Amino acid sequence: MFYFVSSYLMDITTILIRLKKEFEDTITTAVFNGERYSNGQKAKERLIRSQKIIHYIHEYVKKEFILNGIDKNLLYPPLWSSAPEKKIQWFLKTKNQDITYVPLDVNLEKNINVEKCLVVNIRSQLSSMQKNIDTLYERTFAESLNLHLQYPSMCLWEIYMIPAYEYDDKAMENNQIKFKGVSKIERYIEMFYAIADRATPQWDEYKYERIALLIVDFKQANPKIYYSVEELISDGLISPTTKITDNMLGKISIKWFVKDLIAIYQQRFPC
Predict the structure, then answer these.
(1) Which of 3, 15, 76, 145 is a good FRET partner for 170, with 20 to 30 A between their CA atoms?
(2) Residue 73 lies in a domain
(3) What is the pLDDT of residues 221-258, one digit of tens each?
(4) pTM for this structure?
């Protein structure tokens, strides 16, 4: 099922540099995919709906899985492709998953061994964060609950990317790049930590086996990813008296997500 290669981590910063450039170029030119829009905000909306920039992170995840032993022929969509996504029957509905590892003995159409799939979903929120936070969190919570009610042992993982400073939607209407104040980072950490690190299939259906909260400062020329509480405090992003700890942040870090998830998977579904 798995083969192992020497450890190698792709440079996610390079991916984020490209993501930032395409996102900001779309706003300042008000052009997406060769089509001109009335302003940068409209062009940005079209870019987001296309899912083009978030797919860079999809490819990063797929490459990390392959480099850590997952057969590339059993990953959907395949590397460097956005289709086909695999559709899985939830407790309440059926939905396409962003990335799915489908072992050879799984038949999704006949609902055979579906629990053995490994599922990853990836989201980002670069603006309008305060307005949508509760809705987006509820959706994240509901997805893990629906899948685990149907498949208790299924290994689920979520990546959620947020900016340290959210982009200013109003400035986008004038084709400008500006940033608002510091995002509510402590609240995001607390919320996602609360639904991360599901230990066993017997309970906590609302939790994910692993969550990665990717906190990125896009104000910098080379976007900075935050991995420690000390960095967040030093850059003025969270309070020096915060209750957030490095242990909490480590549980929702992107650093070791693939190895952790594969280890959990192999424990539940030994070869």
Answers:
(1) 15
(2) yes
(3) 999 999 999 999 999 999 999 999 999 999 999 888 88
(4) 0.90
